[in-house]
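Rotation project, supervised by the postdoc (A.L.). Task for the rotation student: set up a whole-complex structure prediction and record inputs and outputs verbatim in this book. Inputs entered:
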Amino acid sequence: MLELDTCCKSFRVGAFGTKELVAVRDVSFEVRSGNVVSLIGESGSGKSTIGKMILRLLPTTRGTITYDGTDVSTLQGRSLREYYADVQGVFQDPFSSYNPIFKASRVFTMLRSEYFSSLSRSEWSAKLERSLEAVSLEPGDVLGKYPHQLSGGQLQRMLIARALLLDIRLLVADEIISMLDASTRIDVLNLLGELKSRGLGILFITHDLSLGNYISDETIILRRGRIVEMGATEKVFGDPRHPYTQNLLASVPHLHEKWRHDRVVAAAVPASADDGRALVAVDEGHLVAAGFGP
Amino acid sequence: MAVSTGQLQADIEPVPPGALQPAAPAPARRSEFLYFAFRNWKFVLGLAVVLAFLALAVFGPMLTAHKPLEFSGPTASPPSHAYWFGTTSFGQDVFAQFVYGLRATFLVGCVGGGIAWLLGAGVGFTAGYRSGWIDDVLNMLTNVVLVIPTLAILIIVAAYLNVHSYVTEAILIGLTSWPWAARAVRAQTFSLKTRDFVDIARLSGRKTRHVITTEIAPNMSSYLLMMFILLFGGAVLIGASLDFLGLGPSASVSLGLMMNNAYSASALLLGLWWWFLPPGIGIIGIVGGLYVMNVGLDEIFNPKLREL
Amino acid sequence: MSLHVDDLTVYYQSLRGDVKAVDGATFEIADGEIMGLAGESGCGKSTLGKSLIRLDTRMRYVRGSVELDGQELPVWDDARMNPFRFRQVSIIPQYALSALNPTRRIGRMAVELLKSRDVAVDAVLPEFRRRLELVDLPQDILERFPIELSGGMKQRVVMVLSSLLDPSLLIADEVTSALDVSTQRAVAELLVEFRDRGFVKSMIVITHDLSVLYQMADSILVMYAGKLAEKAPAETIVNDSRHPYTQLLLSSLPEVGVRYAERRLKGIPGRPPSLLEPPAGCRFQARCPVATEKCDEQPPFCPLEAGHEAACWKAVA
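Outputs recorded:
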């Protein structure tokens, strides 16, 4: 459904834009319907940049992103609006995603004028209520309120409901639960799981490995803009080959297991060591940067 | 952790920053503004002064039978029952001149301030939202106009163009006083552009122009209002300065021109205080009132500046 | 060192009334103990930490006592707490990373901080340098600006500075939250090392992340809506908790190894009560699956067995 092919993104920084900052380097992967792909990386890994490129909020510097065969960068005006009817995003900070001076339900009415202008009032209310119920929200609780009167969890769910209104096929979820409380997090995560079983493809961007492990079918480990390991989640978590992945897994705090000081993880391999290494398959559906395999 | 700020704020700083008495329910947003507005003495005082002068400008000319430039009365006579503000050395009614002059002043303020506001906001929003080369070009333009000594240019242009009407004067003022407004708007737009709700608007299919007017500008509405007030006041001041230097339209009357005439006729030496005091107070009153109103508005819009 | 806190109650003043941020906190910390203070946002853990050092002027002390090393801490008086701050009690505040002045070099900031605390700079500077080296920071770090340092490096500098005078109690407020996973582990292990080396005697580590606390803390204190819920050794909290809130919280945490397809985790429905007018009785009652009428009466925070306290009628029964 969605395919990235050697995408690169660089920014011009420094005085007069003389220096170049490469945020994303040669990233290629696929998201299929009904599949959750986790894009895992720490800060500065370029994962959010990839999300924004897919959503056409940032242009790619090199490489192509294709959706159902069409190159996303060629979309404009009408075709872009149609793209957004299939692909939507939800971002990290629920309080920043809403314009604070308007009511929260404005995010829905914004869609109405663009996509649902032909619906009558009652049809629109009914559709809205269905979407809100699909994300376990009471319409009476959230409609008519300002963003600061609602909780982060409710706001995030409303954004998902907004995406569902459009009957999307791909959702880009960029760290959507990192700002939520632990007890609400899991509910939003379970919601994503439910949507996936209904055929929605999800690109789940996160820095938290346990979340990625919980929800995703495939995992991509990103480091400084480059993919270092990718494949089916059980394979990547169960049999990590790249030292960076191993290091990450060893540093995750567990609830029933203390950090092991005896397991000597390979001395931190610098990011530059990944330069110029293509991904090779070490196992069926499990790719690692060349040279870090078995 | 980031989640604490949003939720803890909701508990500690009750929003909307509403009722001072815990018992009263939190007022809705629009009436919240009015509630705080009329408790702020700076806003009320400034507004009252400006409105008083405006009323004089609108209704004043109906109160007097004399025309401003008509040589109707005794020369250089102090305020009396017939001539409320006395007469000039040429026998013109000072009160008539004053109220007609107020009209001209307000006209210059509105038109000049309005043009500057439109230009400043337009350039600022475009440069801030679009970035890239558009930003660079507009930035250069803004800096150039900013650096030009405005009054000097206006003096030269006015002297050469032989300004005939206040509208022309106002246009000239408007074309030269917008840069600081553009810079401020650009800076604010930059910071608002990074917020996620702008991305959500784009993901809803909104076009650039739309995003600016429906998402970014409303968030800055208080600032845009205050900006207009400052530009209005600035235009009045510059207009009065030009008129005082004799570079404004000479065939009509304005407060600055009144002061110019009074100065040329040595009114101060001759003790004709009723001639230059009213226009002086008029200018000070209007501009001062606007600025004080602005300070009050700042306190009203920014909850952190409010006196609890 | 020993810390005894008895019925500490701290409210925030607001336009609408008092926000009862911390209500009746009573607990103890032994010498050399690292206690984790856990809870979700708005539960009062940050307030409790800050009230021990009285750093926030918006706080209103209502009642209670704090005793450190047998000496009463005047936590109700800002000025009288001054000699204790940084010497006996020290804090690594939340958002310390973003609070570093970007226009000051690290060395200058450190000197200014020490001078403001009336510390003889020349006397402590060599020790400062020694400790910087111990935490693997390069010597030239004093010449650098904050923007040149990574998050982990900044955190380490702040940690060394806060513990420079060997305080009895160090309060670490959300020091691992904004960091990457590998840096988080390094910082957590460093905190334990500080205790092991004797730079600090005891520590209160405030965070929402229970799994990090399990790795580094000796005991964990869980708070909910301004009240203490449960306190026990870390192993006990994780494996044998008795308060329903702790149990539900633990079961809602995803871990590496648990997958959606295999085991559906559940969250806690509802939201914490507003602290402006909290309900009388147990504050978790509305969301608790095992609540009864008895819960209309506030359960006391009392010991269940040695070293394990909880505020729940069900746990005591």
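Student's summary: The interface with chain A takes residues 2-3, 6-7, 9-10, 15-16, 29, 195-197, 199-206, 215, 218-219, 221 of chain B (CB under 8 Å).
Supervisor addendum: The radius of gyration of chain B is 24 Å.
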